[in-house]
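User: Fold this one for me? It's histidine kinase.
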Amino acid sequence: MTVSPSTTSLDSATGLLLRQAAPAAAGLVLFVAGLTWLLVGRALRPVAAMRREFTEITERDLHRRVPVPRARDEIHRLARTMNATLDRLHRAMTRQRQFVADASHELRSPIAAVRAQLELVLARPSRTDWPVAVHKALRDTDRLQAVASDLLLLARLDVREAPPKTAVDLGALAAEEVRRHPGALTMDQLAEAGGRERAAVVTGSRVQLSRLLTNLTDNARRHTRTTVSITVAVHGGLVELAVDDDGPGIPEGDRERVFERFTRLDDARARQDGGTGLGLAIANDIAHAHGGTLTVLTSPRGGARLLLRLPRAA
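Assistant: Here's what I get for histidine kinase.
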């Protein structure tokens, strides 16, 4: 004879167990939820501080930075990345403000000169040498046009648009530049390292690269004592173009500064010769836009050497 346990007794035991365990389970759930809330809140507290500080930063106070937590975790790296981005924005904004101030100064000088000349002519029309007055006004107007053209080109370069992938022969460009200034420029034979003659073809904008070369030769012609020489050579995967003069050269301490906008090492002479202070800055920006570099060295002729390096076309 088999005896079966009562289902009523089993149900009663199960109900009692559930009634006793339910409060403990609910308490455990609440404890885990509260602990999770505290831990997550503490972990995200630096993020909240970073968010508050970041939302208060405007273009007027880019010197401010978000707090960096001490823990070397992902939030620490995020804060450092945000501060590095703010550093770049601050430098860019400072550069832009300085550029606008310098541009305003450069444009104000010829405008003031033209205004003064016109006022003087109007005050004494009968005693004015009109051809001389018009010539002076045109000279200052030419300077205004040169500064405006350079500013427009720099604005386009600042957009960082990739130049076209057109094959450009730097040797041919250099030869054209020499033909435009006979007697003032000379060109050495195009050669590859090792002596074999070879075409120096790069990819990019022919107009921009021609402007780069013109700016380099114009700068060299203003400072040389005799003539300016251009050398184009191929070294493996690079094409090098060197512009040499026999002038006073550029001191080592100024070799980076000459690429800054509106920089003149000899301000009076540069203004007299029509320099805007933007030529080397434009050349440097064009070189970087084409994946190359532009550096200042000491020329074997005793003056300055401006060396352009660009990747050679495949």
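One thing worth pointing out: The domain at 166-311 is CATH 3.30.565.10 (Heat Shock Protein 90).
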